Amino acid sequence: MNAGIIGQAAGLFAVTNIDDIVILALFFAQGAGHLRIVLGQYIGFAGILVVAVAAAFGATFLPESAAPYLGLLPLALGLKAAWPSS
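User: That's the sequence. What structure does it adopt?
Assistant: C-alpha cells below.
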C-alpha cells in the first residue's frame, strides 16, 4: 500500500464524517439521553467496521480482475431498494 492510497482513504473517512457530526449535534441539541447517543455512535461505528473488514477479507478470495466491479454492488442494492415493488 502506498502513501497516496492511505491519504485518500483518510481524506474520504474525514469527509464522510462531516454529516455524522451534524446529526450527532442535532441529537445532542434535542436533549435525548446522552449516554444512549454515545453508545449508539460507538456500536454503529463498530458494526460498520466489522462489516468492512469482513468484506475486505472476503474480497481477497476474488480474482484481481473482479475487484473494480465491486463498486457496482452498492449501486445495484440502492437501485433495488429504490425500485417500487409490486
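The two ends are 46 Å apart (CA to CA).
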